[in-house]
Write a structure and sequence with these properties.
Blueprint: H1 2-17, E1 24-36, E2 40-43, E3 46-65, E4 71-88, E5 92-109, E6 114-124, E7 139-152, E8 155-166, H2 170-173, E9 179-188
Antiparallel strand pairs: 1-3, 1-9, 2-3, 3-4, 4-5, 5-6, 6-7, 7-8, 8-9
Length: about 190
């Protein structure tokens, strides 16, 4: 996991260390997260009912306008915290998950205020202290569709719909469901 974080940070530093032209920007985003999916899961004969899953995320965003097009490339590094609660036949559970995220994608600028984007996301699938290299399910992969609307010169509102595509087995989706809706704000720093 440390390697993933270091490589992502180095890529972001590389992108912003070159001379900044008008077509590049750096921003900070915050999002409220609501996760949803199967409300009931069965693991080893026990039925679990997920009551709620929600949280927040903070991301650092690098955008690059592709010359002579309405396309922006997107690179994001972030921190996500998800709170969950539920119950089984003989157990009530709750907790939180801490995720480190990396995102690559592109936005299509519809006009000066509105854009739509497609993103590929990767996050740690297990708690940071439980990961080890021999596991094939260390990371969760997902795709997202994002819509953003610029309300002020340096402030954009965003709505994002996300769907995980691997791994989506019961032990993972019971705490972190397969689908998410995120609402947030992005502040342009540079």
């Amino acid at each position: 996991m440390r390697t993933y974080i270091v490589l992502g940070f180095m890529a972001l530093l590389h992108c912003i260390s070159h001379r900044m032209y008008a077509q590049n920007s750096l921003g900070l985003s915050t999002n409220y997260i609501h996760s949803f999916g199967k409300g009931t899961s069965e693991i080893q004969g026990t039925t679990y009912h997920l009551n709620t899953t929600s949280g927040y995320e903070i991301t650092l965003n690098y955008l690059h306008d592709v010359k002579n097009t309405d396309i922006q490339t997107v690179l994001e590094l972030g921190y996500r915290q998800i709170y969950f609660s539920g119950k089984s036949d003989d157990l009530v559970y709750s907790g939180n998950l801490i995720k480190v995220t990396g995102t690559l994608g592109c936005n299509y600028l519809i006009n000066k205020e509105l854009y739509i984007g497609g993103l590929f996301e990767i996050e740690n699938n297990m708690d940071l202290d439980e990961t080890y290299a021999g596991r094939g399910d260390l990371y969760r992969y997902s795709i997202s569709l994002e819509v953003g609307y610029k309300i002020l010169d340096k402030l954009t509102t965003t709505m994002l719909v996300n769907r995980a595509f691997y791994p989506i087995s019961e032990p993972y989706t019971i705490f972190n469901p397969q689908n998410q809706i995120r609402l947030g704000l992005t502040f342009k720093l540079l």
